[in-house]
Write a structure and sequence with these properties.
The complex is a heterodimer. Chain A contains 9 helices and 10 strands. By secondary structure, chain A is α/β, with parallel strands linked by helices. In chain B, helix 2 packs across helix 11, helix 9 runs parallel beside helix 12 and helix 11 runs antiparallel to helix 12. Classes of the chains: A alpha/beta, B alpha+beta. The interface between A and B is medium-sized, with 26 and 22 residues.
Chain lengths: ~240, ~400
């Protein structure tokens, strides 16, 4: 489904210094995979996530999504593509304050040209177990509940790809495990998920591990679900 | 809308700022337009074609003592000559002084004017009750009086005045009529006077042979200044032939007097409109600051919206709607304040108020420009940032 070919990304800092965030990254992700991308800060994993999510353009290489070349789409075309094909979950939830859970979940539908949007918000909230919290505002929800609202928002438009950037970074261990199990069950139901994290315990929930260092892929391989023996390797990467 | 509600205090402040500016602009313009309109009405009611000849103040030597006062050289013959000039519709002579007038035990001080029946036509007076004196009354110097509306109120306090007796400087008069008031349009003194026949005044009350004024109405308002020149030439020639001195009379053009007043009020209006525009500018700056601040603060929200698929124009439309709602509310608030303020001013003072259409339209255009400019452009800039960077800018 996703085919990155020799992707490079160079930033220019305000000081004029250029930073090579991604260097010749090639990566294929098939439909139904659950991939964890790990790496130390500055390894390029956030940049890779932005490129995968069409939030940022690569400076080199080619990005094909379902055989469609999306490397050089216009701003508006990328916005439309994100809206229809990709769901995002962020570390700090990014819910609109003073806005009900249901309205937060329905936000992407505001920018969608789909006609059949009735009931999608309710269905997505029910899928993350928050059918009884639809009218609550973020301030009235716990951290774990807020992240579940954010997951429902990512799923509301039935995207091909779910991108999660440190989704448990702001949550305590018990709640984090709960969020990971939601992601796992979504994956078991067929959803393609890319998880960006530095936390080995969280990465171990995925089925494939891609490790980045200095903007390059240094290892890429499958992991058995729940295989904690991998943890030291991931720790080393930090 | 919710976002504006969430920043209630700040929105209210920005809104109040804009409303104050709009109210200042609209209110000063309302006073300006009202004043200009009243001056026009005054000119109309007075007669746009009215000229008044008065004796000039001159210095005389009486028994080696310098006295100053009006010249005593304006005569009935002068009046007759002026009345015969080309372009003059009506002319009326006048002798007048401020005097104490008495009815039973009630006294009042007012201007007593001796004149001819033509005066009513020249000064556009109408009789409310009774009648005006006629040429016959004048010829026989009858002691009849027509009261101005204010004088009638002062002496008779609502009771019927016609048929009653009054004393002017001790001389008994019969009241034969009361004039209709000119009201606020008049310069104030026009309703506070008593008219008596010219000859009655000259012989029985004032005992003078000279005139204190000649009232002239001109046939065609466009000829006012040429008739004025003719009167000056005529009287100049008549008087200088007797005494080789400077002009001992002056010709006043009522319309010109009001034109000067109108120019003065227009200057004032431009000045106050400028100040009001500054106030509006300050109010607009408040809205501008609010929008800039709110867009900066909400770069997080903008980033999220962009991430989930909002195009730049969706973001611009959203902020445009918010800022437009804000400025329209501010404008409506300002107009409401101006409306109540205008009513209050009209009630409490003698200032005239009229709806200033240009200021309404102008202030609306200005707040819309502020709203659109400072709603759309920062939002557009924010929407073009990569969404993740926008989110990081917290």
């Amino acid at each position: 489904m996703i085919d990155l070919e020799s992707i490079g990304k160079t930033y220019t800092r305000q000081t004029g210094e250029s930073v090579r965030a991604l260097d010749d990254v090639s990566l294929r992700i098939e439909r139904g995979e659950f991939v964890a991308i790990v790496g130390a800060s500055g390894s390029g994993k956030s940049t890779l996530m932005n490129v995968l999510g069409l939030l940022d353009e690569p400076t080199e290489g080619r990005y094909r999504f379902d055989a469609e070349d999306v490397s050089n789409l216009s701003l508006a075309a990328r916005a439309g593509f994100r809206n229809a094909r990709i769901g995002f979950v962020f570390q700090s939830f990014h819910l609109l304050a003073r806005t009900s859970a249901l309205e937060n979940v329905e936000l992407p539908l505001l920018y969608s040209d789909r006609a059949d949007i009735a009931g999608l918000g309710e269905r997505a909230l029910a899928a993350v177990g928050l059918a009884d919290r639809m009218q609550h505002t973020p301030a009235e929800l716990s951290g774990g509940q807020q992240q579940r609202v954010a997951i429902a928002r990512a799923l509301v438009n039935e995207p091909d790809l779910l991108l999660a950037d440190e989704p448990t970074g702001n949550l305590d261990a018990a709640v984090a495990a709960e969020i990971m199990s939601i992601l796992q069950s979504l994956n078991r139901a067929g959803r393609t998920i890319v998880l960006v994290t530095h936390d080995p315990a969280m990465a171990s929930a995925a089925r494939r591990l891609v490790r980045l260092a200095h903007g390059r892929v240094v290892s890429d391989g499958p992991i058995a679900s729940g295989d904690i023996t991998l943890a030291p390797t991931v720790l080393e990467a930090r | 809308m919710r976002a504006l509600g969430a920043r209630r205090v700040r929105s209210a402040l920005a809104l109040a700022g804009a409303a104050t500016g709009v109210a200042a602009v609209v209110l000063t313009a309302a006073v300006g337009v009202g004043t200009a309109r009243r001056i026009d009405e005054q000119i109309q009611s007075l007669g746009a074609n009215l000229l008044i000849v008065r004796p000039a103040d001159v210095k005389r030597l009486v028994a080696r003592q310098a006295l100053s006062g009006p010249a005593t050289t304006l005569t009935l013959d002068d009046f007759a000559a002026v009345g015969a000039l080309r372009g003059v519709a009506h002319a009326a002579p006048g002798v007048s002084a401020t005097m104490t007038v008495k009815h039973d035990a009630t006294t009042t001080s007012t201007t007593v004017l001796g004149t001819t029946p033509a005066f009513a036509a020249v000064r556009r007076f109408h009789v409310r009750t009774g009648r005006l004196f006629d040429d016959d009354d004048d010829r026989h110097a009858r002691r009849v009086a027509v009261l101005g509306a204010e004088v009638a109120d002062a002496l008779f306090a609502g009771a019927v005045a016609v048929g009653q007796a009054i004393r002017i400087r001790g001389v008994p008069f019969d009241v034969i009529g009361v004039l209709a008031p000119k009201g606020v349009l008049a310069d104030g003194d026009e309703d506070n006077q008593i008219l008596i026949p010219f000859h009655t005044a000259a012989r029985r009350v004032f005992n003078v042979t000279w005139l204190s004024s000649v009232f002239v109405s001109v046939v065609n308002p466009t000829e006012v200044s040429s008739v004025e020149t003719r009167i000056e030439a005529l009287l100049g020639a008549r008087h200088r032939s007797e005494r080789d001195v400077a002009d001992d009379f002056e010709v006043q053009d009522a319309a010109r007097y009001f034109t000067i007043q109108r120019k003065a009020s227009e200057t004032l209006r431009v000045l106050t409109a400028g100040i009001a525009a500054v106030a509006l500018g300050v109010g607009g700056t408040g809205i501008m600051a609010l929008m800039l601040l709110s867009i900066r603060e909400r770069s997080d929200e903008i980033g999220l919206r962009v991430a989930v698929g909002a195009r730049p124009r969706d973001i611009v439309a959203q902020f445009l709607m918010e800022s437009t709602a804000l400025v329209v509310a501010g404008w409506l608030g300002g107009v409401a304040v101006a409306l109540f303020g205008g009513i209050a001013i009209a009630r409490a003072t003698s200032l005239a108020i009229a709806p200033p259409l240009a200021a309404l339209a102008g202030s609306f255009a200005m707040v819309m420009i502020i709203g659109i400019g400072f709603g759309a452009f920062p939002a557009r800039r924010a929407s073009l940032l990569p969404p993740i960077r926008a989110m990081a800018e917290r």
